[in-house]
Specification:
It is a single chain. By secondary structure, the chain is α+β, with helices and mostly antiparallel strands. The chain has 7 helices and 6 strands. The protein has a single domain, classed as Archaeosine Trna-guanine Transglycosylase, Chain: A, domain 4. The longest helix has 12 residues, at about 80-90. It is globular, with a radius of gyration of 16 Å.
Amino acid sequence: MFLRLHSFPSRSEACDGLIDIDADTLAEQWYWNLWKTRSFPFRDLTDGTQVALVASWSGGKRIAWLVQAADVIAERADGWQQAVDLLADHTELGRDRVLKNAYTADKQGSDVRYVLAWRVVPIRRLDLPWPDGLRFGGNGWLEAGRAELGIHECDTRGVRVATAGRL
Protein backbone atom coordinates (compact mmCIF):
# COMPACT_ATOMS: atom_id res chain seq x y z
CA MET A 1 0.00 0.00 0.00
CA PHE A 2 1.21 3.51 -0.78
CA LEU A 3 1.24 6.20 1.90
CA ARG A 4 1.44 9.94 1.33
CA LEU A 5 2.59 12.30 4.06
CA HIS A 6 0.87 15.61 4.79
CA SER A 7 2.75 17.83 7.25
CA PHE A 8 1.02 20.33 9.52
CA PRO A 9 2.39 22.79 12.09
CA SER A 10 0.26 21.34 14.93
CA ARG A 11 -2.06 18.46 15.81
CA SER A 12 -5.01 20.83 15.77
CA GLU A 13 -4.21 21.87 12.20
CA ALA A 14 -3.71 18.22 11.23
CA CYS A 15 -7.18 17.45 12.55
CA ASP A 16 -8.72 20.42 10.74
CA GLY A 17 -6.76 19.85 7.53
CA LEU A 18 -6.99 16.07 7.10
CA ILE A 19 -7.89 13.81 10.02
CA ASP A 20 -11.36 15.24 10.66
CA ILE A 21 -12.08 16.49 7.16
CA ASP A 22 -15.37 15.23 5.71
CA ALA A 23 -15.51 12.96 2.68
CA ASP A 24 -17.14 15.57 0.43
CA THR A 25 -14.37 18.09 1.10
CA LEU A 26 -11.68 15.44 0.66
CA ALA A 27 -13.22 14.38 -2.66
CA GLU A 28 -12.55 17.89 -4.02
CA GLN A 29 -8.81 17.56 -3.40
CA TRP A 30 -6.01 17.17 -5.92
CA TYR A 31 -2.54 16.22 -4.77
CA TRP A 32 0.65 16.62 -6.74
CA ASN A 33 4.39 16.36 -6.64
CA LEU A 34 6.92 18.29 -8.71
CA TRP A 35 10.27 16.52 -8.89
CA LYS A 36 13.67 16.88 -10.49
CA THR A 37 13.97 13.08 -10.71
CA ARG A 38 11.41 10.37 -11.34
CA SER A 39 10.76 9.54 -7.69
CA PHE A 40 8.55 6.81 -6.26
CA PRO A 41 5.65 6.37 -7.04
CA PHE A 42 5.91 8.18 -10.39
CA ARG A 43 5.81 4.93 -12.39
CA ASP A 44 3.54 3.06 -9.97
CA LEU A 45 0.62 5.33 -9.08
CA THR A 46 -2.29 4.64 -11.43
CA ASP A 47 -6.04 5.16 -11.42
CA GLY A 48 -7.52 2.88 -8.77
CA THR A 49 -4.39 2.66 -6.60
CA GLN A 50 -5.23 2.78 -2.91
CA VAL A 51 -3.30 5.36 -0.89
CA ALA A 52 -3.31 5.95 2.86
CA LEU A 53 -3.10 9.66 3.70
CA VAL A 54 -0.94 10.33 6.77
CA ALA A 55 -1.21 13.50 8.84
CA SER A 56 2.02 14.56 10.55
CA TRP A 57 2.83 17.28 13.06
CA SER A 58 5.60 17.94 15.55
CA GLY A 59 5.46 14.98 17.88
CA GLY A 60 2.96 12.75 16.07
CA LYS A 61 1.42 11.08 13.05
CA ARG A 62 -1.94 9.45 12.27
CA ILE A 63 -3.04 7.36 9.31
CA ALA A 64 -6.04 9.54 8.53
CA TRP A 65 -7.78 8.27 5.40
CA LEU A 66 -7.78 5.47 2.89
CA VAL A 67 -8.40 6.88 -0.58
CA GLN A 68 -8.18 5.83 -4.18
CA ALA A 69 -6.21 7.72 -6.82
CA ALA A 70 -8.14 8.89 -9.88
CA ASP A 71 -7.31 10.95 -12.96
CA VAL A 72 -3.60 10.29 -12.41
CA ILE A 73 -1.12 12.15 -14.57
CA ALA A 74 2.59 11.28 -14.56
CA GLU A 75 4.31 13.49 -17.10
CA ARG A 76 7.70 14.88 -17.94
CA ALA A 77 7.93 18.67 -17.80
CA ASP A 78 10.46 21.12 -19.13
CA GLY A 79 10.77 23.23 -16.00
CA TRP A 80 8.51 24.74 -13.35
CA GLN A 81 6.46 26.88 -15.76
CA GLN A 82 5.47 23.92 -17.90
CA ALA A 83 4.73 21.88 -14.76
CA VAL A 84 2.32 24.57 -13.57
CA ASP A 85 0.64 24.61 -17.00
CA LEU A 86 0.29 20.80 -16.95
CA LEU A 87 -1.29 20.94 -13.49
CA ALA A 88 -3.63 23.79 -14.33
CA ASP A 89 -4.84 22.04 -17.49
CA HIS A 90 -5.14 18.53 -16.08
CA THR A 91 -6.79 19.40 -12.77
CA GLU A 92 -8.95 22.18 -14.24
CA LEU A 93 -8.14 24.18 -11.10
CA GLY A 94 -6.79 27.05 -13.15
CA ARG A 95 -3.37 28.60 -13.13
CA ASP A 96 -4.07 31.05 -10.27
CA ARG A 97 -5.20 28.32 -7.88
CA VAL A 98 -2.24 26.09 -8.75
CA LEU A 99 0.13 29.02 -8.17
CA LYS A 100 -1.46 29.80 -4.77
CA ASN A 101 -0.64 26.29 -3.56
CA ALA A 102 2.23 26.62 -1.05
CA TYR A 103 4.02 23.51 -2.32
CA THR A 104 3.92 24.75 -5.91
CA ALA A 105 5.11 28.21 -4.88
CA ASP A 106 8.04 26.66 -2.97
CA LYS A 107 9.11 24.82 -6.13
CA GLN A 108 9.25 28.01 -8.23
CA GLY A 109 12.66 28.43 -9.77
CA SER A 110 13.58 24.80 -9.18
CA ASP A 111 14.49 22.37 -11.92
CA VAL A 112 11.14 20.55 -12.14
CA ARG A 113 11.28 17.67 -14.62
CA TYR A 114 8.43 15.38 -13.49
CA VAL A 115 4.82 16.00 -12.50
CA LEU A 116 2.69 13.49 -10.63
CA ALA A 117 -0.88 14.58 -9.91
CA TRP A 118 -4.03 12.77 -8.83
CA ARG A 119 -7.55 13.36 -7.61
CA VAL A 120 -8.72 11.87 -4.33
CA VAL A 121 -11.63 9.42 -4.12
CA PRO A 122 -12.34 8.78 -0.42
CA ILE A 123 -12.87 5.17 0.61
CA ARG A 124 -12.86 5.29 4.40
CA ARG A 125 -11.71 7.40 7.31
CA LEU A 126 -9.13 5.37 9.27
CA ASP A 127 -7.66 7.58 12.02
CA LEU A 128 -5.16 4.89 13.03
CA PRO A 129 -2.02 5.35 15.14
CA TRP A 130 1.30 5.52 13.33
CA PRO A 131 3.30 2.28 13.72
CA ASP A 132 6.71 2.52 15.36
CA GLY A 133 9.67 2.02 13.06
CA LEU A 134 8.20 3.21 9.75
CA ARG A 135 9.89 6.21 8.13
CA PHE A 136 8.98 8.28 5.10
CA GLY A 137 11.56 9.08 2.45
CA GLY A 138 12.40 12.65 1.59
CA ASN A 139 9.69 12.88 -1.08
CA GLY A 140 6.77 12.22 1.30
CA TRP A 141 5.87 8.77 -0.05
CA LEU A 142 6.24 5.31 1.46
CA GLU A 143 5.20 1.79 0.55
CA ALA A 144 4.27 -0.57 3.39
CA GLY A 145 2.16 -3.66 3.95
CA ARG A 146 -1.37 -3.35 5.30
CA ALA A 147 -0.51 -5.56 8.27
CA GLU A 148 2.39 -3.22 9.21
CA LEU A 149 -0.07 -0.34 9.25
CA GLY A 150 -2.85 -2.04 11.16
CA ILE A 151 -5.15 -1.80 8.14
CA HIS A 152 -7.30 -4.88 7.71
CA GLU A 153 -8.80 -6.16 4.47
CA CYS A 154 -12.29 -5.16 5.64
CA ASP A 155 -11.00 -1.56 5.82
CA THR A 156 -10.10 -1.57 2.14
CA ARG A 157 -12.87 -3.34 0.28
CA GLY A 158 -16.42 -2.77 -0.76
CA VAL A 159 -17.58 -0.04 1.56
CA ARG A 160 -17.13 3.41 0.11
CA VAL A 161 -17.76 6.71 1.79
CA ALA A 162 -20.63 8.43 0.01
CA THR A 163 -19.65 11.74 -1.54
CA ALA A 164 -21.66 14.28 -3.46
CA GLY A 165 -22.39 12.44 -6.70
CA ARG A 166 -19.10 10.48 -6.71
CA LEU A 167 -17.59 7.31 -5.42
